[in-house]
Amino acid sequence: MNAPDSPNALAARSELPQLMQVMGLKSKVASTLMARAPAAIKNRALLALAGLLRSQVAPLQTANALDLERAKTAGLAGPMLDRLKLSPKIIETVALGCEQLAAMPDVIGEIIGMKQQPSGIRVGQMRVPIGVFGMIYESRPNVTIEAASLAIKSGNACILRGGSEAIESNKALAALVQQALTGAGLPADAVQLVPTTDREAVGLLIAMPQFVDVIIPRGGKGLIERISRDAKVPVIKHLDGNCHVYVDDPCDIAMAVTVADNAKTQKYSPCNASEGLLVARGAAAEFLPKIGAIYAAKGVEMRCDAEAEAVLAKLPAAKVLAATEQDWYEEYLAPIISIKVVAGVDEAIAHINKYSSHHTDAILTRDHMHAQKFLREVDSASVLVNASTRFADGFEFGLGAEIGISTDKFHARGPVGIEGLTSLKYVVLGQGEVRT
């Protein structure tokens, strides 16, 4: 039986709707100021934030240690603990992201596609900020900086609701963001962190269309399904990261082994790690023993179709199981991979389009026509040729940072950076024309 809420907790909960309304109103006001902020001022805030992050590594790690200790006591699983860590390397990466964003051109106010019409008017589209976005995320405190920096560069305001397991880290990071904003002459309310771990705050945030223009969830499937179901504002999302590497015939076997290894084992927990390996029958006899030996040495469990199992089961110390139908759909986020031998590129594309989550898929090939076919026909947000799926990331794509990955087909798709946080409005330039 759960213990009853304390009087203080009940009082705080009764005040939560008012808190979220006030945060929403402040964000709306701040978004107007951010939308008209000059590029130089926004860049000044980003560079200041990078400097603050580097100068505050020790205090940030002290706050993070509190979260890590509490998470360990609560029995948080290994991959989640890994995501929770705020190491000096991670802090340096987000600081570099701020600097990369500051160096990028400002797209706000950019006019594209201007064309003269028969009537004499010229019609084009101007890129403008979305307004206010709500970001709901789990574990990774670095997302606080990624979201904040992208909000600043794109001229938006945002309300951030991080996971309860990272509350101390997120508070410390958000304080640095607000310090950088005010130092540059921008409103501190442009980036607000929900200060409570009460889950009711999420329900309130996703139901404020009068203040919030879009919601971006970043976390587990359960969180994203709940938000997609209950939100009263548009949602930019992806549910799973069931990514594939397809080894074609012909291909450079040595390169294919290196890339397939990296795509799976460089890090198991990210959504762009490969969960499925497809191998053309013509390449299987040479490729599978090589990659199988590497996976076996690293303790990766291989769930295989009959053809792949017949080859890989012969390897010493290999963990080889027969794949079930469900394995082709799985996002393991663990040292497990599904492996299937296919006839060629057509069967690989069909398998990916049926079973993948349409996140990121790669082909390793020497055949230009096969590469072009794969790029055209694989229905995923990011499609790669001769490169690891682990590159499907805003920082690696040169976006400076990413707010998340979208597998939706409207507005934003793939890693969502600056342009994904903007909208286009039509602009018309005339010289007194009237419609007849």
Low-confidence stretches: none
Shape: globular
Secondary structural class? alpha/beta
Radius of gyration: 24 Å
- Biggest β-sheet: count, sense, barrel? 7 strands, parallel
Compute the number of strand runs: 16
Percent of residues in beta strands: 15-25%
Lateral strand order in the biggest sheet: 10-9-11-8-7-12-13
Quote the average pLDDT: 93
Which quaternary structure do these chains form? single chain
Number of helices: 14
Amount of helix: 40-55%
Order of helices and strands: HHHHHEEEHEHEHEHEHEHEHEEHEHEEEE
Description:
Helices cover 44% and strands 19% of the residues. By secondary structure, it is of the alpha/beta class. Strand 1 and strand 2 form a beta hairpin.
Give keywords.
436 residues, alpha/beta, seven-stranded parallel beta sheet, four-stranded parallel beta sheet
Short précis:
About 45% of the residues lie in helices and about 20% in strands. The chain is of the alpha/beta class and about 425 residues long.
Secondary structure blueprint with pairings:
Elements: H1 7-35, H2 39-55, H3 57-73, H4 78-84, H5 88-103, E1 111-116, E2 122-129, E3 132-137, H6 142-154, E4 157-161, H7 167-183, E5 191-193, H8 200-205, E6 214-218, H9 221-230, E7 243-247, H10 253-265, E8 274-280, H11 281-297, E9 301-304, H12 306-312, E10 319-322, E11 336-342, H13 345-355, E12 360-364, H14 368-377, E13 382-385, E14 405-406, E15 414-415, E16 422-429
Parallel strand pairs: 3-4, 3-6, 4-5, 7-8, 7-12, 8-11, 9-10, 9-11, 12-13
Antiparallel strand pairs: 1-2, 2-16, 14-15
Helix pairs in contact: 2-5, 2-7, 3-7, 5-6, 6-7, 10-11
